[in-house]
Design goal:
The complex is a heterodimer of chains A (117) and B (110). With 117 residues, chain A is mostly beta strands. Chain A is built from no helices and 11 strands. In chain B, strands 1, 2, 3, 4, 5, 6, 7, 8, 9, 10 and 11 form an 11-stranded mixed β-sheet that branches. Classes of the chains: A mainly beta (117), B mainly beta (110).
């Protein structure tokens, strides 16, 4: 089945530093990937749609200069949290449109827990 | 992004009981998906539904695509402790956009 690998699973960084999170589709090509943020006991909040070879589409209220998204290949999208601050601490999850039995479903990565000190 | 109405928000049940949760929307969807998320993990697909009226099972789980295309439900029969987690519905609309439910937190008491 379709597998999405997300790395790192946990990262702790100092305030002011930048952190990069990778999302890879392992056994399929993903022209579109999605990035979400999730607060404890809440649903997924879509941050942006990552499009291979073009600029990401950001949801309203998400700072594109703060959360840089690069989708340089059909199997890799990256999210960089720039100049991270404690309020950026959260669980970040990516997903990709993946073919399952000829139809589209979303396959999710395992998530990345970011803690900014 | 827009969210689907999912209920109940949380459930506390005894092991062995059946569980039912649903998602509703004011607009139609072409696909309904149900996911389970364990703490600290990403959501995992449980069941995918592609046609109005479709009823699909996956072990003790059963889900249905509502006939109006605006709702879906998920049933879990004979719950066990490992069913604990947060369950999300997701819908794919005719514009190829995914929307998510607000989640149902399930606690199973042994």
């Amino acid at each position: 089945g379709a597998v999405v690998s997300q790395h790192p699973s946990r990262v702790i960084c100092k305030s002011g530093t930048s952190v990069k999170i990778e999302c890879r589709s392992l056994d399929f090509q993903a022209t579109t990937m999605f990035w979400y943020r999730q607060f404890p006991k809440q649903s997924l909040m879509l941050m942006a749609t990552s499009n291979e070879g073009s600029k990401a589409t950001y949801e309203q209220g998400v700072e594109k200069d703060k959360f840089l998204i690069n989708h340089a290949s059909l199997t890799l999208s990256t999210l960089t949290v720039t100049s991270a601050h404690p309020e950026d601490s959260s669980f970040y999850i990516c997903s990709a449109n993946s073919p399952v039995s000829g139809a589209n479903v979303l396959t999710f990565g395992a998530g990345s827990r970011l803690t900014v000190l | 992004g827009q969210q689907l109405n999912q209920s109940p928000q949380s459930m506390f049940i005894q092991e062995g009981e059946d569980v039912s949760m649903n998602c509703t929307s004011s607009s139609i969807f072409n696909t309904w998906l149900w996911y389970k998320q364990d703490p600290g993990e990403g959501p995992v697909l449980l069941i995918a539904l592609y046609k109005a009226g479709e009823l699909t099972s996956n072990g003790r789980l059963t889900a249905q695509f509502g006939i109006t295309r605006k709702d879906s439900f998920l049933n879990i029969s004979a719950s066990i402790p490992s069913d604990v987690g947060i369950y999300f519905c997701a819908g794919l609309n005719p514009g190829n956009q995914f929307y998510f439910g607000t989640g149902t937190s399930l606690t199973v008491i042994p």
